[in-house]
């Protein structure tokens, strides 16, 4: 897979499909596996770019802490290496903050899709987020940790998919340095002056999100000048738990924008 460079830091990314470019920015600490359920439907008509934050997957792991500015610079390096002139950004959790800040600073994004995105550290239950973290060599701990990421009952209802996610997380998630660095970025992630971000935005929030207050999604929708909101029956990982809903809503919205 190609590797972009932000100074001395290598950022690995993958490209799927052809068409208008959608770039995925993920939840803190989790690897690119989190987009696996969305890549197939999106890549039928779009080029989908998925990258690993510094400290995650096969990207380099510099010493932390990391900042949102570091992560937006990594995103910019990926887009420069890829060569995309215009993109649709899809961000989940911390990745939503990265997407909004990138749109504020650059003219490249045509639209934003935001999932479970906080507006400020006070929107985040950091104790709950800490429970999502698990040793990569302990499958049982990884499985237990997923309960906080999904709506109640989801883990028990989908044992085969949970086993697959456990395997992915064992190899793809951030190491200790990566987790610590990305959580530091999350703790200082505050979206202010949202009236400046005039990029069309579709905001998803899981109504049973235990990590980011669902009210944050409503606030984002209200304060983004061109924001539209969608409530989804899910926990924090909306794009993993309800990928069909997210894909259908996002693709229909993007089609409307092109019409």
UniProtKB/TrEMBL annotation:
Top-rank taxon, per record: Archaea
The keyword Methyltransferase appears for this protein: no
Keywords: Hydrolase
GO terms under cellular component: membrane
Any GO MF annotation of the entry: monoacylglycerol lipase activity
Annotated InterPro entries: AB_hydrolase_1, AB_hydrolase_fold, AB_hydrolase_sf
Any one biological process term the GO annotation gives: acylglycerol catabolic process
Pfam families given in the database record: Abhydrolase_6
Protein name: Alpha/beta superfamily hydrolase
Domain AB hydrolase-1 stretches: 15-248
Keyword Hydrolase recorded: yes
């Amino acid at each position: 897979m190609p590797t972009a460079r932000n100074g001395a830091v290598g950022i690995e990314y993958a490209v799927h499909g052809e068409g208008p470019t959608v770039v995925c920015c993920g939840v803190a600490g989790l690897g690119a596996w989190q987009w696996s359920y969305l890549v197939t439907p999106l890549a039928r008509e779009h080029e989908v770019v998925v990258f690993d934050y510094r400290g995650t997957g096969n990207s380099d792991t510099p010493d932390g802490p990391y900042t949102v500015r570091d992560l937006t610079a990594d995103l910019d390096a990926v887009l420069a290496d890829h060569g995309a002139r215009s993109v649709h950004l899809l961000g989940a959790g911390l990745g939503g903050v990265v997407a909004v800040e990138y749109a504020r600073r650059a003219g490249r994004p045509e639209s934003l899709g935001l999932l479970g995105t906080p507006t400020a550290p006070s929107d985040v239950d950091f104790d709950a987020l800490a429970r999502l973290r698990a040793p990569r060599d302990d499958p049982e701990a990884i499985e237990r940790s997923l309960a906080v990421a999904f709506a109640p009952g989801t883990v028990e209802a989908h044992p085969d998919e949970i086993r697959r996610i456990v395997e992915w997380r064992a190899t793809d998630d951030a190491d200790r340095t990566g987790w610590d660095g990305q959580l530091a970025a999350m703790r200082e992630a505050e979206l202010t002056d949202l009236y400046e971000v005039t990029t069309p935005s579709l905001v998803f929030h899981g109504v049973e999100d235990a990590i980011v207050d669902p009210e944050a999604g409503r606030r984002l929708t209200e304060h983004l000048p061109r924001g539209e909101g969608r409530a989804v029956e899910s926990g924090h990982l909306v794009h993993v738990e309800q990928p069909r809903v997210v894909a259908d809503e996002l693709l229909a919205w993007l089609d409307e924008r092109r019409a």
